[in-house]
Write a sequence for this structure.
């Protein structure tokens, strides 16, 4: 089995386990929704906020939900030391990283169809077909940017006490470029892009994703050393 | 080695005194801001050396992962802590400047914002260290987290620059008159030397706290040797 | 012929504490070594070092001529570790668990063969029940089916007899005897020398991380 096939197999295993625990997965989506509701009350009781603010709330909701999703992804690996069981096999740890990162990425993408419509509804955003496609691409890039470093960090923090504090502390400052790029792009998609800036932001996001998918994959096996 | 580092440190302190004196009393006041601008003589060097120390941290992190030698982790701790301290100082200086110059404690100026995020990134690595007791793991994870944090810095910088470009934010002066460059350079070297001294000192403390490198005495094995 | 398992001056430090030091061992193919020692003496650390899950602080480990530390190494594909924990995913069924180990381990057993393995372990009836519903005895059996799946040349076992009833122990002993007869080297860490007697001929005692006694299994009883 090539490393790529191993990674896909690991991703499949993770997604199967995610499906088996689907009530928990749904609870994460619900958490995201609750976060959006909190935001809407925090700024204006009638929900009247600009597009940029709505975009910000959406991505912050994604970030907060990602913590829960990432932690769960590794809880089931440490419960019975299942991950070590995999490491004892002649599996390339890189395959394990990418497999889990892909699964985490998919789960974050799946939050999109839940959180995006809710954001549009709560904050009165006008979404049409063309917008939706661009927003979907944006969401995919944002989810990818969170999934790679998130998987790496979650694998570390799952093995220490105080994991609930450390994971967000490490991940959130790191993913600020995603927040900024996401908010700007969202705004440009919905309100027009007079100066053609969207391409720049999209490229920045893609660059972030590429850098971290490669870097985190390269560093993962070192974090397994004891 | 220890004496070299101490010597460098003392030189640094001396230079800082000289540079500060020049900056405070000898250099001319700035055209628009007057004497307030003199904070630049510590602010700019703090920024330069802070960035340099975080680069040292990155280098030490890579060195640790490459060689596995504990001395690089010791130095990494030093570099991380000094970066965070300088980062904190930078933020405070920036806030003071802003308060006096524009009347606000904080602006989302590109450099101030990036400094804040850098501070958080590297403080996060130190926080991670405090949660990991086992030294091998702690060293490896710190190195990994440092590399990831450092790579983020240019990304953050560009993001913030574009993000805030619609809003004209006041920022510190870009061009510097030659009579001001001298105290700046003196202080920059001063802070560099002090930073090196402190990093070396911290590394030594860390290395001592790691304890005995050698295993306990070999005990006698009883029983049949060919069992 | 080179022994299957060799350690030279093996030492492992966690922080300030040396969990293991100056460990020199050799186990040849077809031999069984029993490792006895109190809790915290270093038995588990030793097994984990042999499996490649831990990096030695000092010294080296050689399994079948290579180091087990490299993930893709020759050594890893020929060794099995059965530890305290089962390495199980709670939400998978035993059949899925074996399929996972089968595929990721690069082996090509068919579903029918996997089902046979489960039957031999006495888990046929539960093959579609999730592991979360298993008793500790069943979990142990599932973990141990890995041995039949992987057919290793080096077998590392940490308290393998705990949580097993008599039928389970007999099944395990017959599996281990078969593996030994086929040339596998066995290293068993156990509190219970009697149970391990059928499959081990030599023993070492570990005290505070170092080997304090070594000899044949028969001598162990008289020594303690």
């Amino acid at each position: 089995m090539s490393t790529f096939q191993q990674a896909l197999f690991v991703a499949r295993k993770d997604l199967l386990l995610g499906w088996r625990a689907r009530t928990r997965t749904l609870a994460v989506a619900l958490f995201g929704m609750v976060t959006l509701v909190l935001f809407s009350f925090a700024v204006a009781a009638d929900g009247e906020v600009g597009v940029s603010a709505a975009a910000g709330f959406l991505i912050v909701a994604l970030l907060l939900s990602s913590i829960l999703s990432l932690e769960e992804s590794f809880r089931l690996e440490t419960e019975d030391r299942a991950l070590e069981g995999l490491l004892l096999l002649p599996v390339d740890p890189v395959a394990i990283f990418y497999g889990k990162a892909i699964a985490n990425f998919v789960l974050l993408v799946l939050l999109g169809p839940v959180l995006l419509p809710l954001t549009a509804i709560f904050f009165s955003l006008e979404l049409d077909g063309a917008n939706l496609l661009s927003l979907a691409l944006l969401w995919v890039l944002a989810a990818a940017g969170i999934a790679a470093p998130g998987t790496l960090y979650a694998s570390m923090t799952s093995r220490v006490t105080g994991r609930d504090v450390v994971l967000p502390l490490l991940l959130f400052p790191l993913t600020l470029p995603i927040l900024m790029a996401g908010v700007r792009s969202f705004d440009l998609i919905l309100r027009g892009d007079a100066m053609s800036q969207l391409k720049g932001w999209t490229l920045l996001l893609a660059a972030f994703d590429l850098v971290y998918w490669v870097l985190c994959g390269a560093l993962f096996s070192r974090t397994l050393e004891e | 080695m220890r004496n070299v580092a101490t010597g460098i440190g003392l030189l640094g302190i001396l230079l800082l005194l000289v540079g500060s004196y020049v900056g405070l009393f000898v250099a001319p006041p700035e055209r628009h801001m007057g004497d307030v601008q003199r904070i630049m003589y510590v602010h700019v060097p703090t920024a330069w050396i802070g960035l340099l120390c975080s680069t040292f941290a990155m280098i030490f992190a890579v060195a640790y992962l490459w060689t596995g030698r504990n001395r690089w982790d010791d130095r990494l701790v030093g570099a991380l802590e000094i970066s965070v301290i300088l980062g904190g100082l930078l933020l405070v200086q920036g806030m003071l400047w802003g308060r006096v110059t524009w009347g606000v404690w904080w602006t989302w100026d590109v450099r101030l914002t990036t400094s804040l995020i850098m501070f958080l990134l590297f403080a996060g690595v130190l926080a991670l260290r405090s949660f990991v007791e086992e030294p091998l793991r702690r060293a490896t994870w710190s190195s990994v987290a440092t590399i990831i944090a450092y790579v983020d810095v240019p990304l953050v910088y560009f993001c913030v620059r574009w993000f805030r470009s619609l809003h004209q934010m006041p920022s510190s002066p870009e061009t510097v008159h030659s009579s001001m460059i001298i105290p700046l350079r003196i202080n920059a070297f001063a802070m560099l030397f002090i930073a090196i001294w402190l990093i070396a000192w911290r590394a030594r403390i860390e290395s001592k706290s790691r304890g005995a490198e050698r295993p306990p005495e070999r005990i006698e094995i009883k029983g049949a040797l060919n069992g | 012929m080179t022994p299957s398992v060799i350690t030279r001056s093996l030492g492992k430090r966690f922080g300030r504490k040396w969990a293991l030091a100056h460990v020199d061992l050799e186990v040849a193919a077809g031999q069984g070594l029993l490792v006895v020692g109190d809790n915290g003496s270093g038995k588990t650390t030793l097994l984990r070092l042999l499996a490649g899950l831990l990096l030695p602080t000092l010294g080296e480990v050689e399994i079948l001529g290579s180091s087990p530390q490299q993930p893709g190494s020759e050594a890893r594909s020929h060794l099995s570790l059965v530890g305290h924990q089962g390495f199980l995913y709670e939400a998978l069924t035993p059949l899925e668990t074996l399929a996972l180990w089968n595929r990721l381990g690069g082996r090509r057993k068919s579903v029918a063969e996997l089902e046979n393995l489960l039957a031999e372990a006495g888990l046929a009836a539960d093959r579609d029940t999730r592991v979360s519903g298993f008793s500790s005895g069943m979990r142990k059996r599932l973990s141990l089916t890995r041995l039949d799946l992987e057919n290793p040349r080096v077998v590392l076992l940490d308290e393998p007899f705990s949580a097993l009833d008599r039928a389970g122990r007999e099944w395990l002993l017959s599996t281990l005897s078969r593996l030994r007869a086929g040339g596998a080297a066995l290293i068993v860490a156990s509190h219970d020398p009697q149970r391990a007697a059928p499959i081990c001929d030599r023993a070492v005692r570990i005290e505070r991380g170092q080997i304090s006694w070594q000899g044949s299994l028969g001598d162990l009883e008289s020594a303690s």
